[in-house]
């Protein structure tokens, strides 16, 4: 595997690992399972694509097709992470609240139907813009350090 892939994977792992202490500082709750979940600060999507793009820019240069492809791909990933995926997460919050609403309606007016316990949908899918920016900054730092460490002297 090439160094750019290693650096991007390391950046993703760092971002996922940082979610645990950042969440703890915000909420005083220790949740190691955040390492395996999507969403939260910083965005591992942004960290991965930014570190790879930074590494390519420093290694191959800005006028290369490699950099252009990585940058455009990265921008699409980051836009999707904070746009469509975040909207999906917000919609999921509303859908999960519907169960409680139906329960309240049932108590007032009985309706005949077979009740199945629905599985609660995952609510933390996408990222807030600051989470995407945080991931991008982490990725740029990781990509720069990765380039400096792997640079031939």
TrEMBL record:
Domain of life: Bacteria
InterPro entries, per database record: DUF212
Organism annotation: Niallia endozanthoxylica
The protein's name in its UniProt record: Divergent PAP2 family protein
């Amino acid at each position: 595997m090439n160094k750019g892939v290693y650096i991007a994977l390391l950046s993703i792992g760092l971002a996922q690992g940082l979610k645990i202490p950042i969440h703890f500082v915000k909420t005083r709750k220790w949740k190691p399972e955040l390492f395996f979940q999507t969403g939260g600060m910083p965005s591992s999507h942004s960290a991965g694509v930014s570190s790879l793009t930074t590494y390519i820019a420093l290694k191959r240069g800005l006028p290369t097709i490699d950099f252009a492809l990585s940058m455009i791909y990265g921008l699409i990933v980051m836009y999707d992470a904070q746009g469509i995926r975040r909207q999906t997460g917000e919609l999921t919050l509303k859908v999960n609240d519907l169960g409680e609403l139906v329960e309240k309606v049932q108590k007032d007016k009985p309706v005949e139907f077979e009740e199945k316990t629905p599985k609660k949908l995952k609510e933390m899918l996408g990222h807030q813009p600051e989470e995407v920016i945080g991931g991008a900054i982490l990725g740029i730092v990781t990509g720069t350090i990765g380039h400096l460490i792997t640079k031939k002297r």
